[in-house]
Design a protein that fits this description.
This protein is α+β, with helices and mostly antiparallel strands. It has 2 domains: 92 residues, Immunoglobulin-like (Sandwich), CATH 2.60.40; 172 residues, Glucose Permease (Domain IIA) (Distorted Sandwich). Helix content is 19%, strand content 34%.
Length: 280
């Protein structure tokens, strides 16, 4: 009889632990978005909570919305910790991706590397871009609109994808961090979502005509190689407003739009936040 009671007690303990663990899991927020390399995710936690991802504090909006991005080479797991009325610790599984790798031999060095006399200009322009992306725009309305979905800033064949990389003469170049859309020169480029322009430059060395549009809380879009820039820093745009025109300025071999996105210093894939490209 004692052995039966002992067994029953163990059964109650196991069931109790199972229920407690299930309750703890139930408190973890449901993740939306693309939980993969290059992806952007968001979740709703109890308002007033504090949230970290791998120890980095995340923004938490008044309604409890929190969000984060993963870079091209993000690790396979990330630790999400929520502290507050509904505490939670959750290990997120970040899906890996295969990237297109191209190897090109026999390329002249002058084509691969910028001329030394341009290095000071490149450093100065890089500082301008970094300062624009570092600005914090605490606009929850813009971010909520962004999470509702973007539209394509221009339509056409996708000619380059996020994460691809070229090796010139055996040496790796920086990966491509945007999505390229082939379109005729002069085709209008429109805002994929609402935001505030933080950079509008007609002629940067690498990217030519360049615009950065801040969607709030350091989620931003960058538009490169524009033939015309029709906005100024400080302009507030709505979805569909004209930003500029497709071009081949900067280090581009033909007319196209290079659309890039950042969350803080993390480069994320715009294609994961946009609908399928409409067929022509």
């Amino acid at each position: 009889m004692a052995r039966c009671l002992y067994g029953f007690g163990r059964l109650v303990l196991v069931i109790g632990c199972t229920l407690l663990c299930a309750a703890a899991r139930a408190q973890c927020p449901q993740i939306s978005g693309a939980l993969q390399q290059g992806g952007f995710i968001w979740a709703r936690v109890a308002p007033g909570s504090s949230v970290t991802l791998d120890g980095e504090p995340l923004d938490v909006l008044a309604d409890g919305t929190t969000f984060a991005g993963f870079g091209r080479d993000a690790a396979a797991t990330a630790e999400l910790v929520v502290e507050g009325p509904a505490a939670c610790r959750q290990t997120l599984q970040v899906l890996p991706r295969d990237y297109l790798i191209q190897r090109v031999e026999g390329v002249p060095a002058a084509t691969v590397n910028p001329p030394p006399e341009q290095l000071e200009r490149i450093r100065r322009e890089s500082a301008l871009v970094a300062a624009a992306r570092a600005r914090i725009l605490p606009r929850a309305d813009l971010l909520w609109a962004a999470l509702a979905g973007f539209v394509w800033p221009v339509q056409g064949p996708i000619s380059g994808v996020y994460g691809s990389q070229r090796y010139y003469n055996g040496e790796p170049r920086r990966p491509h961090f945007g999505v390229d859309v082939a379109a005729p020169e002069g085709a209008l480029v429109r805002a994929p979502g609402p935001g505030v322009v933080t950079l509008a430059q007609p002629d940067l060395f690498f990217s030519g005509g360049t615009v950065i549009l801040d969607h709030g809380y350091r989620l931003s879009s960058t538009f490169l190689h524009l033939s015309a820039v029709q906005v100024r820093a400080g302009d507030e745009l709505q979805t569909g407003d004209v930003i500029g025109a497709v071009g081949a300025t900067g280090r581009a071999t033909g007319p196209h739009l290079d659309w890039r996105m950042n969350w803080r210093a993390v480069r994320i894939d715009p294609q994961l936040l946009a609908p399928p490209m409409p067929k022509p």
